Amino acid sequence: MKAIVLQDSASPDNLRLVERPILKPRRQEMLIRVKATALNYRDVEITNGTYHTAFSLPLVPLSDGVGEVVEVGADVTRFKIGDRVCSTFWQRWVGGSFRMAETGYQRGGPYDGLLAEYALLDEQAAVLAPKNLTDVEAATLPCAAVTAWHALVTEGGIKAGETVLVQGTGGVSLFALQFARLSGARVIVTSSSDEKLERAKALGAFAGVNYQRIPEWGDAVFDLTDGRGVDHVIEVGGPQSFQQSLKACARRGQINVIGYLGGREGGINPLDIFTRQVQVRGIPVGSRESFEAMCRAIEVNDLRPVIDRTFHWTDVVAAIGYLEEGSHFGKVGLVHG
Ligand SMILES: NC(=O)c1ccc[n+]([C@@H]2O[C@H](COP(=O)([O-])OP(=O)(O)OC[C@H]3O[C@@H](n4cnc5c(N)ncnc54)[C@H](OP(=O)(O)O)[C@@H]3O)[C@@H](O)[C@H]2O)c1
Questions:
Q1: Are 126 and 157 part of one and the same domain?
Q2: Domain limits at 274?
Q3: Which residue, judged by its Cα, is nearest atom 24 of ligand 1?
Q4: What is the count of structural domains for the chain?
Q5: Ligand 1 centroid to residue 258 C-alpha, Å
Q6: Does pTM surpass 0.85?
Q7: Pocket test for ligand 1, best of 152, 188, 198, 236 (most atoms within 8 A of CB)
Q8: Closest residue by CA, ligand 1 atom 45
Q9: What is the rounded CA–CA span in Å between residue 106 and residue 67?
Q10: Which of 12, 67, 111, 222 could disulfide-pair with 34, CB 3.0 to 4.6 Å?
Q11: Which of helix, strand or coil describes residue 305?
């Protein structure tokens, strides 16, 4: 089979199409024919060597994908041949607290990812893809969508009538927008682009603030809530934007620390957390239990992920360059086959 492998050292130039043997599934594994994959910012960082953890190479990249089960190991009971399944990000986090995750078991690094014609999945590290989604749509769920669901629903207990602040219009933030609307919450979006803010409003956002034109956007967001503040924040900007998020928060608001797209530098004054009694937590994607709950919601409500653009999987270098450039709105997918 063909696979794309990050060879020798991290750099997009070292992504090579290679021939690899198709492996036999062991007792609890299944072989899937990969139908689509999707990019996350993490994949860009792993390829460029800027991810916070360096993995040993060679590595088949990409945590996220969907495929058809074509062979099952002798003891597989959760799936059968012909099922369409998504990979999970954490191979061993079935449910409960993150202590159950065994952090060495992430797909797309250090475990081989799905950028190949075939892949082996442990049956405990897969979920049935929602029936209402196309292959590319289903491929976008394992990392970005589960992160947004875990933050707002599993941990956040989001309620109708609350206000959610989502930063930027990338994969995680647009899923958060969609899940917040599904829950009856109001959404305020920040973006570097007025055109993207309009597109976010078309998806159901109540208001938008351009974080480049208004560097003190925290006050602007707070003003949009009639002086109450936001109840949930999807914080992907990093320490600098965290200061603004604090200003935007309601008392007992929840800040989900997810990414650091604006850099890692900056100071946080704990007294600002104290005065607003804000709750701050890190979000490490989510468990299979969260993934399955999210898939039920997606199917019941016919929610469709926002796909900005798709590439053929062998054009992954161009796809990575496109995501890095930052003009996308939502997810970038890769079609296999
Ligand atoms: N903790 C976790 O489990 C987890 C899971 C998934 C992702 N992440 C992290 O979360 C972040 C977002 O991931 P993603 O996959 O959604 O990325 P993405 O699809 O590449 O989205 C990036 C978008 O964020 C916005 N952005 C860029 N710089 C920003 C800044 N300084 N402040 C606010 N927004 C900014 C831009 O939107 P506009 O063009 O609209 O300005 C950009 O298009 C990344 O840092 C990623 O590593 C963490």
A1: no
A2: 146-282
A3: 168
A4: 2
A5: 8
A6: yes
A7: 236
A8: 259
A9: 18
A10: 67
A11: coil
pLDDT tens-place values along the chain, 337 residues long: 999 999 989 999 999 999 999 999 999 999 999 999 999 999 999 999 999 999 999 999 999 999 999 999 999 999 999 999 999 999 999 999 998 898 889 999 999 999 999 999 999 999 999 999 999 999 999 999 999 999 999 999 999 999 999 999 999 999 999 999 999 999 999 999 999 999 999 999 999 999 999 999 999 999 999 999 999 999 999 999 999 999 999 999 999 999 999 998 888 889 999 999 999 999 999 999 999 999 999 999 999 999 999 999 999 999 999 999 999 999 999 999 8
Nearest CA to ligand 1 atom 25: 168
Q: Is residue 290 part of a domain?
A: no
Q: Ligand 1 pocket: which of 53, 107, 172, 193 to mutate (most atoms <8 Å of CB)?
A: 172
Which residues, judged by CB distance below 6 Å to any ligand atom, belong to the binding site of ligand 1?
Answer: 40-42, 143-144, 147, 167-173, 191-193, 196, 211, 236-237, 241, 258-262, 283-285, 323, 326, 328
The answer to whether residues 268 and 313 belong to one domain is no
Residue of minimum CA distance from atom 31 in ligand 1: 262
Tell me the C-alpha to C-alpha distance, in Å, between residue 221 and each of 17, 75, 214, 217. Answer: 46, 53, 10, 6
CA–CA gap between residue 223 and residue 248 (Å, rounded): 8
Do 134 and 150 share a structural domain? no
* Half-sphere exposure at residue 100, Cβ-oriented, CA atoms within 13 angstroms: 10
Do 105 and 202 belong to one domain?
no
Q: What is the CATH number of the domain that holds 29?
A: 3.90.180.10
**149 closest CA partner among 125, 190, 182:** 182
Paired tokens of 196: 């993207």
Centroid of ligand 1 to alpha carbon of 140 (angstroms): 14
Spacing of C-alpha 105 from chain mean position: 17
Whether residue 192 is found in the same domain as residue 75: no
